[in-house]
């Protein structure tokens, strides 16, 4: 780019050139720093054991992201990742992933794995501590929020949470609609070649854990 200016305009034009150059430099630094801040990822995990699982387990939601939707929130959805932005509180509510697998080994339980990105592995690991997620176990019922929270003052860092429930094969599950939406398995329950028609009752869908994995329960499951 060539800058043309007369002598009497030289001082002003020179200032504009310097400002323009500094702006480009600042933009380049910003873009570089954002790229660097996502250079590494790290995970942290915790497990809560289920000592003696019942033959039938209920999986139900406690706090639901749908209850947080107002005229001050903005949803953002892509395939497999949903975010609700609360402009008033400056908070993010993000849907976790849910995976249910058979396990031959004890202890059975719930593993919550948190993942974040940062400029280094240590930075990314420390960011996972800021992801707030609630769940609990009471008898034969597992209670979950269908979202996790990033509070005000903490920037989004490609964060994700995966919930893994491990239970013995043969366990029957009754899952409410909110938690069912977090499952990948339910996307295939309506396939023409699916031999396990979905059973639903009292707000729950019925599932069966087999040696091959989780399937929608049908007459073969004795329901």
């Amino acid at each position: 780019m060539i800058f043309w200016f007369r002598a009497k305009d030289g001082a002003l034009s020179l200032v504009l050139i310097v400002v323009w150059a500094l702006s480009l430099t600042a933009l380049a630094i910003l873009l570089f720093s954002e790229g660097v801040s996502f250079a590494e990822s790290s995970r942290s995990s915790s497990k809560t054991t289920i000592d003696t699982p019942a033959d039938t387990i209920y999986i139900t939601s406690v706090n639901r992201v749908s209850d947080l939707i107002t005229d001050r929130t903005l949803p953002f959805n892509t395939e497999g990742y949903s975010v609700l932005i609360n402009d008033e509180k400056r908070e993010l509510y993000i849907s976790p992933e849910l995976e249910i697998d058979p396990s031959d080994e004890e202890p059975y339980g719930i593993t919550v794995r948190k993942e974040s990105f940062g400029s280094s592995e240590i930075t990314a690991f420390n960011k996972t501590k800021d992801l707030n997620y609630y769940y609990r176990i009471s008898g034969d019922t597992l209670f979950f929020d269908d979202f996790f929270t990033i509070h005000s003052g903490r920037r989004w860092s490609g964060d994700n949470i995966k919930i893994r429930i491990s239970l013995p094969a043969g366990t029957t599950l009754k899952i409410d609609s909110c938690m069912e939406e977090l499952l990948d398995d339910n996307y295939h329950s309506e396939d023409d070649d699916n031999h396990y028609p979905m059973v639903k009752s009292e707000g729950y869908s019925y599932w069966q854990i087999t040696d091959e994995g989780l399937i929608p329960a049908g007459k073969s499951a004795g329901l």
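Residues 39-221 form one domain. Confidence is low (pLDDT under 50) at residues 1-8, 192-196.
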